[in-house]
Specification:
This protein is mainly α. The protein has two domains: about 35 residues; about 55 residues. Helices cover about 75% and strands about 0% of the residues. It has four helices and no strands. The protein starts with 6 loop residues before the first helix and ends with a helix. About 10% of the residues are buried.
Protein backbone atom coordinates (compact mmCIF):
# COMPACT_ATOMS: atom_id res chain seq x y z
CA UNK A 1 0.00 0.00 0.00
CA UNK A 2 1.50 3.28 -1.09
CA UNK A 3 0.97 6.39 1.05
CA UNK A 4 0.39 9.60 -0.87
CA UNK A 5 0.41 13.09 0.57
CA UNK A 6 -2.20 15.34 -0.93
CA UNK A 7 -1.60 18.96 -1.93
CA UNK A 8 -3.44 20.44 1.07
CA UNK A 9 -1.25 18.47 3.46
CA UNK A 10 1.88 19.69 1.66
CA UNK A 11 0.70 23.30 1.87
CA UNK A 12 -0.11 23.00 5.58
CA UNK A 13 3.29 21.40 6.22
CA UNK A 14 5.08 24.17 4.29
CA UNK A 15 3.21 26.90 6.18
CA UNK A 16 3.95 25.20 9.49
CA UNK A 17 7.64 24.95 8.66
CA UNK A 18 7.78 28.59 7.54
CA UNK A 19 6.06 29.69 10.75
CA UNK A 20 8.50 27.69 12.86
CA UNK A 21 11.46 29.28 11.06
CA UNK A 22 10.07 32.80 11.57
CA UNK A 23 9.44 32.15 15.28
CA UNK A 24 12.94 30.71 15.74
CA UNK A 25 14.51 33.70 14.00
CA UNK A 26 12.51 36.08 16.16
CA UNK A 27 13.64 34.41 19.36
CA UNK A 28 17.26 34.57 18.20
CA UNK A 29 16.87 38.31 17.66
CA UNK A 30 15.43 38.69 21.15
CA UNK A 31 18.31 36.67 22.59
CA UNK A 32 20.81 38.90 20.79
CA UNK A 33 19.13 42.00 22.22
CA UNK A 34 19.38 40.57 25.74
CA UNK A 35 22.97 39.52 25.09
CA UNK A 36 23.86 43.11 24.23
CA UNK A 37 22.43 44.51 27.48
CA UNK A 38 24.58 45.30 30.46
CA UNK A 39 24.00 43.98 33.95
CA UNK A 40 22.81 47.44 35.00
CA UNK A 41 20.20 47.50 32.23
CA UNK A 42 18.97 44.01 33.03
CA UNK A 43 18.84 44.88 36.75
CA UNK A 44 16.74 47.98 36.08
CA UNK A 45 14.39 46.20 33.66
CA UNK A 46 13.84 43.02 35.65
CA UNK A 47 14.17 43.83 39.33
CA UNK A 48 12.11 47.01 39.32
CA UNK A 49 9.14 45.21 37.80
CA UNK A 50 8.20 43.85 41.21
CA UNK A 51 9.88 45.97 43.87
CA UNK A 52 12.16 48.88 44.61
CA UNK A 53 15.71 47.80 44.02
CA UNK A 54 18.18 48.11 46.87
CA UNK A 55 21.50 49.85 46.43
CA UNK A 56 24.25 47.50 45.24
CA UNK A 57 26.13 48.26 48.48
CA UNK A 58 23.23 46.95 50.59
CA UNK A 59 24.48 43.36 50.40
CA UNK A 60 27.88 41.65 50.26
CA UNK A 61 29.04 39.93 47.06
CA UNK A 62 28.24 36.54 48.61
CA UNK A 63 24.74 37.71 49.53
CA UNK A 64 24.17 38.99 45.97
CA UNK A 65 25.09 35.51 44.66
CA UNK A 66 22.42 33.94 46.88
CA UNK A 67 19.87 36.63 46.06
CA UNK A 68 20.61 36.21 42.35
CA UNK A 69 19.91 32.48 42.52
CA UNK A 70 16.66 33.06 44.39
CA UNK A 71 15.42 35.87 42.17
CA UNK A 72 16.37 34.08 38.94
CA UNK A 73 13.46 31.69 39.31
CA UNK A 74 11.03 34.42 40.34
CA UNK A 75 11.96 36.76 37.46
CA UNK A 76 12.42 33.94 34.93
CA UNK A 77 15.98 35.01 34.14
CA UNK A 78 18.48 32.98 32.16
CA UNK A 79 21.78 32.02 33.78
CA UNK A 80 23.54 34.62 31.63
CA UNK A 81 21.12 37.38 32.66
CA UNK A 82 21.49 36.45 36.32
CA UNK A 83 25.28 36.42 36.04
CA UNK A 84 25.34 39.86 34.41
CA UNK A 85 23.06 41.33 37.07
CA UNK A 86 24.97 39.77 39.97
CA UNK A 87 28.32 40.86 38.50
CA UNK A 88 27.00 44.41 38.23
CA UNK A 89 25.73 44.38 41.82
CA UNK A 90 29.01 42.98 43.18
CA UNK A 91 31.12 45.77 41.64
Amino acid sequence: MKFQINTKTKIVAAISLATAVVVAMGSCTASQKIEAKSGAQLWAENCQRCHNTPSPSTFSPEQWETIGMHMQSRALLTDKERDKIVDFLKQ
